[in-house]
Design a protein that fits this description.
By secondary structure, the chain is α+β, with helices and mostly antiparallel strands. The protein has 10 helices and 13 strands. The strands form 3 sheets. Strands 4, 5, 9, 10, 11 and 12 form a 6-stranded antiparallel β-sheet that branches. Strands 2, 3, 6, 7 and 8 form a 5-stranded antiparallel β-sheet that branches. A two-stranded antiparallel sheet has the order 1-13. The relative contact order is 0.12.
Length: 348
């Protein structure tokens, strides 16, 4: 490789001073500097100059960054799919690392006719205190009648499968719940091989950690709120990953279930057909931005509040309708009895 242009170098460099960055050989920058950077830092460095941008486009750099960030993609099948992206691993990182912000609703009802996706690949990585505890991929076909008509749901584990974790069961107190909320992180990347796009549907950190009312198991929820269509019940939808943990007090904790579902504002799970339309539009049009780890929980709470307000409005309408029906029934009853009494009086 050729060195940087002399125009980027200082006019005079005293012998006792440090070597200017612009005089470093490109090989040194790529092998000794860029290899020590994480993805966001490397992307920021690429914006400094055209020369650094050119050096930062090396595929090997981004492949190493992606594989270390998401161990689940370190698989020949996934590697081949990512290699078909417009800029390979650099495009994949750009799609998958930032926080997804898709708040613009479709201006028509969910239209499935333009969808050409035949399969979706899920790449899931779960960490506890920065230690990897689960790394797994899951492929699902999206053209079968069962997928299109059934509620959309992706289960990472089989029914009897579980994973041992380093989490210690904290009993019935809230300390255990707070520990999971603060230290459990999750990435759920959904890849569309046909469209050559990907999206991270996780909020990163849990937006809610609760104890199941019946089983006592802990459910950590990771959610992303996406725009739906013009219908009120799907104006916004919730892509939610639920991680279910269980174990005996003072003993080991196992992750027993990890699942992804899409839910509308009525609390109903969307079908595979409708979910596929929303997810594909989010991949294509959703903005990616650098998050601070708190936006996910804030938007989740706003979604929950909208659901509560919607439910209360619906209950008020139903109560008003019930009162109107009762009043109408009473009026009809009184009218009939008045007619009967009047008829009896006339007969006499």
């Amino acid at each position: 490789m050729s060195s940087f242009p002399t125009s980027l170098s200082s006019p005079t460099v005293p012998q006792h001073s440090a070597t200017p960055f612009s005089t470093l050989h490109p090989d040194i920058i790529q092998t000794n500097i860029f290899t020590r950077l994480d993805g966001p830092t490397l992307a920021a460095a690429a914006c400094a100059s055209s020369e650094l941008y050119f050096l930062s486009t090396e595929e090997k750099l981004w492949r190493n960054i992606c594989n270390s960030t998401w161990p689940s993609i370190n698989d020949p099948r996934i590697s081949h799919v990512i290699s078909t992206f417009s800029a390979g691993y650099r495009s994949f990182f750009s799609d998958s690392f930032p926080v997804l912000d898709h708040q613009q609703s479709l201006k028509h009802n969910l239209d499935f006719s333009s969808i050409i996706t035949t399969e979706l690949i899920s790449c899931v990585d779960i960490y506890y205190k920065n230690s990897l505890i689960i790394s797994k991929t899951q492929e699902i076909e999206t053209v079968t009648g069962w997928f299109l008509c059934s509620p959309f749901r992706v289960d990472l584990f089989d029914l009897k499968e579980s994973v041992l974790t380093p989490i210690e069961h904290g009993g019935l107190g809230d300390t255990w719940l707070n520990d999971i909320e603060e230290n459990l992180t999750l990435s759920w990347i959904l890849i569309n091989p046909v469209q050559k796009q990907s999206v991270n549907l996780s909020s990163g950190r849990a937006v809610s950690v609760e104890r199941h009312w019946l089983t006592g198991e802990i459910q950590a929820r990771f959610a992303t709120i996406l725009a739906g269509d013009e219908r009120s019940e799907t104006e916004f939808v919730k892509c939610e990953v639920v991680v279910t943990c269980g174990g005996k007090e003072g003993g080991d904790v196992h992750v027993r279930e990890v699942s992804l579902q899409v839910e509308d504002m009525e609390g109903r799970n969307l079908s595979g057909r409708d979910s596929l339309v929303i997810l594909e539009k989010a991949m294509e049009n959703g903005r990616r931005k650098r998050g601070n780890g708190k936006e996910g929980k804030k938007k989740y709470e706003e979604f929950v509040e909208r659901k509560r307000e919607r439910r209360e409005r619906k209950q008020r309408r139903e109560r008003s309708l019930d009162m109107a029906c009762i009043a109408t029934g009473v009026s009809i009853f009184l009218a009939i009895w008045s007619f009967v009494l009047f008829s009896c009086t006339e007969t006499r």
